[in-house]
Each structure stands twice: as structure tokens, then as C-alpha cells.
Amino acid sequence: MLIQLTYASRASRTLGPLDVKDILATSQRNNAAVGVTGALCLANGIFLQQLEGDRDVVNRTYLRILKDPRHLEPAILDFSEIAARRFGNWNMGLISSLAENRQMFLKYSPKAEFDPYSMSPASLREFFDEIVHNGVRWIG
Ligand code: FAD
Q: How far apart are CA 116 and CA 121, in angstroms?
């Protein structure tokens, strides 16, 4: 069964480009081995990640990610069955808060700052759809 899991968490400290590169490289290596795809956003000190793949595999991946000391206050925002993958080509793409993405980050956020904790499952899905369909700048 194919599912998507979306969660948010807060970076436990200020993460530099090398920290983020490290997270991305590990994610891409591990996810490719087990058929997990998705996207990771980091903006305003908050991670927003969508993982997609087999339900058991995504669960195991998420439980491992939870133990990582680089983030805290994890919250699952959406967990649902999907008919098809959104990020079929990305074992983990990184969407950074580059100036050109800032407007898109705020478009779906009810608050003045990017705050995925306050976003509904529907607006989270639209946010990720926009990333895929509107050529949002991403790394990885
Ligand atoms: P290694 O990369 O060899 O790491 C071994 C251990 O050291 C792990 O427990 C790890 O948590 C810890 N560690 C490694 N580097 C650091 C560091 N700089 N500071 C503190 N502790 C460190 N992993 C995935 O497989 N898929 C994902 O999609 C994914 N997404 C992530 C998203 C976020 C926001 C974060 C913070 C981490 C994510 N990770 C992801 C990494 C995950 O938490 C584990 O670190 C990783 O899966 C462990 O991989 P590994 O067994 O190859 O161990």
C-alpha cells in the first residue's frame, strides 16, 4: 500500500549548509535503497518533509528520523493513502527558503512566517503539488 507521510519538526540548532548537505546525502542513499521518495523543506528553522512509499517502509524510516538529535518537536501533519507518487524522481529533494521560493512558502501558510504546524492537510498537499508542477527551485 502506497502512502504519504508529512511531518514538521524544528531544527534543534542553527544548521549550516554542510549539515543540510549531510542530511540530504544520507536521506538519498537510504531512501533509494528502500524505494522511499519525497521532499524536504527547511525554512524559518522548521523542517517540513513529505515521505512517500510503502506504508511499512515509510513508518520505519519516520521512526528512525524521529531519533535524530538534529531536530525536535516532531508532529505528523498528514498520513494518507495515495494512488501515485508525487515525487517519483526524487529520493529526497531539498526545497530551501531561497528568496525566489519565499512567496510560495507564505502562500499556503496562515501565519506571517512559514509555519507548517498550522497548515491543513489540504493546503500541505497543494503546497507540495506546487513544488512539483511549478518548477520551484530545488536542490538534489
Ligand atoms: P549515519 O548517517 O551513519 O548516522 C548514524 C547516527 O548518527 C544516526 O543516529 C544519526 O541520527 C546520527 N548523526 C549523523 N550525523 C549527525 C550529526 N551531524 N549530528 C547529530 N547526529 C548525527 N534519513 C533517511 O534515511 N531518510 C530521510 O528521508 C531522512 N530525512 C531526514 C530529515 C531530517 C529533518 C533529519 C534531521 C534527518 C533525516 N534523515 C533521514 C536522517 C536520519 O535521521 C538518520 O540520521 C539516518 O537515516 C541514519 O542513517 P544511517 O543509518 O546511514 O546512519
A: 10
